[in-house]
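Sequence, please.
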């Protein structure tokens, strides 16, 4: 740690929460054990041509069998919080109805293990693994799925609510809706933009229905929120068509979910901007969707830089982005590294939406990491990514953003969805053939920052 890093650690207020995040299908493995049902990601991965090299999450990082080792690892890094998700098909193998207690037992053990080490659990109830039987009925395109989801959320809250006080209803419904039902590069692989809009509505409805049911079963000081993937949108130039397309991109990438959830209405003109029909909104839906939440979770990786289209008005999801900038740095995902994007996003949310609390629930980068076989993984670009983005957080807080915590994506390398195991986001390296965990240089750097933070705040 440099002296600038020590100063950075001291810039964060007392009580700021430092964590790391994962998701069930990406790390657990144990895919067909102890009564787990199948999910749309099992099905999608088994479909030829959908995931890089035909890979799947059957084993992943084998976290299902390595709870003790992994919670010990978190503790050794000094994490204050751990964000993980619950696999719905472990709890309700048919999606609804019969409860599989062995599934609940697994998360029960995880929660107890974390609490015993002083690590606060942040539980995501849905990180994309919809039970297959529900998809056979149409999945999120069907209104009934929202009610099935709220029932599932209540089952989990009833079991864990005596110990878990921090809940995230959904992870990135934009991705579930658009990548899953709109362009089909994620499960369930549907390609129908109208279906995406309808799925988005039912995801938000499920969120709103679940909020009071989670609260009813957890401690009075509990907080319930939702995590959205958001990206600040910048104009490449001053042309009026650029200003117009910036607004279109913002409506599609950010406001699709922000406006209904935090303002109680869809963005004016949004369905027309997509060239689609309104989703099937029923009376009272928007009131349910905008049920007050305790915090907004923000997942952010990059920015959007928009170049206005001169020839025609693009649809909101077909705005032109600027081609890779020669002087900029890109991660293995092809995403530009632009640290001010996170700061500007947090400040924009503070200004435009009445959010009382913000968390960055994911932020991180994929780079080509190599383990040299003797316990060392050098990843200087990830260290740099984390340092500069965390510096942006400090600036946002100083300028008034109510940011309460930060979770790095990810605790460990994992199944990167359609990219399979080819992209590594962890601050801990996974050697998949042996399942050995090796803390990367970035993991040691993060642990050092957390230690400096704790020292600064201990009397
Ligand atoms: C998250 O998705 C997921 O929650 C997590 O499971 C996943 O492993 C992690 O991030 C890393 O991918 O594509 O250039 O237009 C993030 C998905 C990434 C979708 C950024 C929107 C916009 C940039 N989002 N993306 S670009």
């Amino acid at each position: 740690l440099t002296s600038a890093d020590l100063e950075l650690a001291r810039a964060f207020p007392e009580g700021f929460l430092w964590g790391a995040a994962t998701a069930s299908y990406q790390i657990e493995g144990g895919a067909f054990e102890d009564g787990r049902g199948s999910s749309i990601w099992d099905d999608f991965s088994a479909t030829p041509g959908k995931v890089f090299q035909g890979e799947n999450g059957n084993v992943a990082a084998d976290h299902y069998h390595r709870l003790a080792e992994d919670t010990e690892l978190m503790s050794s890094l000094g994490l204050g919080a751990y964000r993980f998700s619950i696999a719905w098909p472990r709890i309700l193998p048919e999606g609804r109805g019969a409860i599989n207690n062995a599934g609940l037992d697994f998360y029960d053990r995880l929660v107890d293990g974390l609490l015993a080490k002083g690590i606060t659990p942040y539980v995501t109830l849905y990180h994309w693994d919809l039970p297959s039987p529900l998809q056979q009925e149409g999945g999120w395109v069907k209104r009934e799925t929202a009610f099935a989801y709220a029932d599932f959320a209540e089952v989990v809250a009833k079991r864990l609510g005596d110990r878990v006080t921090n809940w995230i209803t959904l992870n990135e419904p934009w991705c579930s809706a658009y990548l899953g039902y709109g362009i089909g590069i994620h499960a369930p692989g549907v390609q129908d933009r109208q279906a995406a809009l309808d799925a988005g509505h039912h995801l938000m409805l499920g969120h709103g229905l679940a909020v009071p049911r989670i609260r009813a079963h957890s401690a009075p000081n509990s907080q319930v929120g939702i995590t959205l993937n958001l990206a600040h949108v910048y104009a490449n130039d001053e042309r009026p068509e650029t200003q117009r397309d910036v607004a279109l991109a913002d409506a599609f990438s950010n406001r699709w979910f922000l406006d209904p959830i935090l303002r109680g209405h869809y963005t004016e003109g949004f369905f027309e901007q997509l060239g689609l029909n309104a989703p099937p909104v029923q009376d009272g839906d928007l009131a349910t969707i905008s049920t007050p939440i305790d915090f907004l979770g923000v997942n952010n990786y990059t920015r959007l830089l928009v170049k206005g289209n001169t020839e025609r008005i693009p649809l909101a999801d077909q705005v032109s982005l600027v081609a890779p900038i020669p002087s900029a740095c890109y991660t293995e995902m092809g995403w530009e590294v632009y640290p001010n994007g996170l700061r500007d996003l947090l400040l924009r949310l503070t200004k435009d939406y009445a959010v009382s609390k913000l968390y960055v629930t994911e932020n991180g980068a994929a780079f080509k990491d190599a383990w040299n076989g003797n316990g060392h993984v050098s990843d200087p670009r990830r260290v740099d990514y984390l340092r500069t983005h965390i510096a942006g957080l400090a600036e946002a807080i100083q300028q008034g953003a109510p940011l309460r915590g930060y979770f790095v994506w990810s605790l460990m390398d994992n199944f990167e969805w359609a990219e399979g195991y080819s992209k590594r986001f962890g601050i801990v390296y996974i050697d998949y053939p042996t399942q050995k965990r090796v803390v990367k240089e970035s993991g040691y750097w993060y642990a050092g920052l957390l230690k400096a933070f704790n020292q600064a705040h201990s009397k």
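Residues 249 and 316 are 6 Å apart (CA to CA).
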